[in-house]
Design brief:
Helix 2 packs antiparallel against helix 4, helix 3 packs across helix 5 and helix 8 packs across helix 14. The protein has about 325 residues and is an all-alpha fold.
Length: about 325
């Protein structure tokens, strides 16, 4: 009798935890409901990157900016309407976040093979992995099962996404608040091995900061006038050496004081992260494995699962 009671007690204790675990993300979430999901997403991402190599960085950035604002829930994809203000016009995204048309194309292709099954939030997660791998970076098994939010927050986007002017302590604390370690932060910053930045986001660095390689500064000033309002949207590669290859040149640039953004060079400026930067600059495999692990962790930030949220039909608007 006592042993029966013990077994029942254990089962009663386990049931709530089983419920929690069943609602968590898994790498095989769509294996039976959408078996063609991965090749469908990858072919669309490959086509987009073939047309414009920069698109890989843009898709990866969308996932970052989604996860950092109330979790990885596809909220960044929602368009503004007359009665709804989303995240697209928040300061870190306005005239900057891009790739929404490509996400639409991926969603359309996925809907053709398994309608109403795969969330826009999960599409972003897969597309960021594929973009990284296609451009020469690591691959990883993407955890899936996120659902889409029905709302978004411009205020949260303004407050949650680190700015190009953020100092090291601010970067560390922002990432730590989301459950990401300092090493995760340095590894994830390595996504700046691809992509471009606007003059308005690095002007102050190239004209006013001293921890800057002189020839690099001269090159960048050639396309970014000192006067605010002049050439604000002129672009420069975040990684001067290989802006469309996912490699560890970003860290080599930091060691040589060639970080484009203030927040980039903060990672190698006599502070606590110098040693991590130097390790990654000397060992691409180390960077690749840490980047992949950090992307998986970032993808775990506050997902909507189970019956929370929805599976949007159109990534730009709630159902």
């Amino acid at each position: 009798m006592a042993s029966s009671f013990s077994i029942l007690a254990i089962v009663a204790l386990l049931v709530p935890f089983l419920g929690i675990s069943s609602a968590q993300l898994s790498t095989n979430f769509y294996s039976s409901t959408c078996p063609k999901l991965f090749p469908t997403v990858k072919s669309t991402v490959q086509s987009a990157i073939a047309k414009e190599a920069r698109m890989g960085a843009s898709l990866l950035r969308l996932f970052f900016h989604d996860c950092f604002v109330n979790g990885c829930d596809g909220s960044i994809l929602l368009d503004d309407t007359s009665s709804f203000t989303g995240e697209k016009r928040a300061a870190p995204n306005f005239n900057s976040a891009r790739g929404f048309d490509v996400v639409d194309n991926i969603k359309s292709a996925v809907e053709n093979v398994c309608p109403g099954v795969v969330s826009c939030a999960d599409i972003l997660a897969i597309a960021s992995r594929d973009s990284t791998a296609i451009l020469g970076g690591p691959s990883w098994n993407v955890k899936l099962g996120r659902r889409d939010s029905r709302t978004a927050s411009q205020g949260a986007a303004n407050n949650s996404i680190p700015r190009p002017t953020t100092n090291l302590n601010g970067l560390i604390s922002r990432f730590n608040a989301l459950g990401l370690s300092t090493k995760d932060m340095v590894a994830l910053s390595g996504s700046h091995t691809i992509g471009q930045a606007r003059c308005t986001n690095f002007r102050d660095r190239i004209y006013n900061e001293t921890n800057l390689d002189s020839s690099f500064g001269s090159t960048r000033r050639g396309n970014c006038p000192r006067a605010t309002g002049s050439g604000d949207n002129n672009l420069a590669p975040l990684d001067l050496q290989s802006p469309t290859s996912f490699d560890n040149n970003y860290y080599k640039n930091l060691v040589n004081q060639r970080g484009l953004l203030h927040s980039d060079q903060q990672l190698f400026n006599g502070g606590s992260t110098d040693s991590i930067v130097r390790t990654y600059s000397n060992n691409q495999n180390n960077f690749n494995s840490d980047f992949a692990a950090a992307m998986i962790k970032m993808g775990d930030i506050s997902p909507l699962t189970g019956s929370n949220g929805e599976i949007r039909k159109n990534c730009r608007k709630p159902n």
